[in-house]
Amino acid sequence: MKLQRSSITNRAAFFEGCLILLAGAALGWHALNRHAQLARVDWALSPYLFPLLVSMGLFILGILLMLEGMKPPNQTTKQPLHWPTVVMTIGCALCYFLLMPFLGFALATALFLLAMLLFLGERRVLMLILLPLVFSAVLYILFGKLLHVMLPGAPVDVLGRAIDLIL
Fold first, then answer.
1. SS3 7
2. Do the beta carbons of residue 102 and residue 156 sit within 8 Å?
3. Could you tell me which residues come within 8 angstroms of residue 37 by beta carbon, excluding any fewer than 6 positions away?
4. What global pTM score does this model have?
5. What span, in angstroms and rounded, lies between the C-alpha atoms of 44 and 31?
6. Which entry of 21, 94, 129, 144 is 20 to 30 Å from 162 by CA?
7. Rounded distance between C-alpha atoms, residue 12 and residue 80, angstroms
8. Helix 105-119 crosses helix 158-166 at what angle (to 10 degrees)?
9. Which pLDDT tens digit goes with each residue over 49-97?
10. Is 99 exposed, middle or buried (0-12, 13-18, 19+ CB in 10 A)?
11. How far is CA 140 from the centre of its chain?
């Protein structure tokens, strides 16, 4: 009996899947660890519920991408991975994560979107102003006000306070 070795036909997809799987696992561990430090807070009110859900999605997507890397190759040409874009996106996401406790959810989200839009080449001023503000406000209202999810707040979160004043 001959053992077949699993062959990775698309190394980039497999490697990306591994990275996404690890990111999902790390985010899930962080969410579970931080929630455990809260004193008797139900998951429905925990600010770590959404990151836990995102981590589950990343975990599943990572597995699917790893499986994609093990499929037989297609004849279509695939573009190579552009590492500066990957590194910049991960760097912006890390800054977003680290600045959220100081800037609050709404302001950190708006600044993250602004940075990513600028990096991806958007130059229309109206789009650079409206999209981050509107998207951040909609998320803040949806999760913070309608679903009553505790979002990270901070004394500097002027955008969150402005939304609260409007509502």
1. coil
2. yes
3. none
4. 0.59
5. 13
6. 94
7. 8
8. 110
9. 878 888 999 999 999 998 888 887 665 556 788 888 889 999 999 999 8
10. middle
11. 16
d(CA 25, CA 20): 9
N- to C-terminal Cα distance for the chain?
Answer: 70
d(CA 114, CA 66): 31
Q: Please, where are the H alpha helices in 38-157? A: 49-69, 83-103, 105-119, 125-139
Determine the residue type at 86.
V
- What CA–CA distance (Å, rounded) separates 23 from 59? 8
Residue 154, helix vs strand vs coil: coil
Contact 50, 140 (CB under 8 A): no
Region of 40 on the Ramachandran plot (φ > 0 left; ψ -120 to 50 alpha; else beta): left
Q: Give yes or no for a contact between 50 and 148, defined as CB atoms under 8 angstroms apart.
A: no
135 by DSSP, 3-state: which? helix
Q: What angle do CA 118, 93, 11 make, to 5 degrees?
A: 100
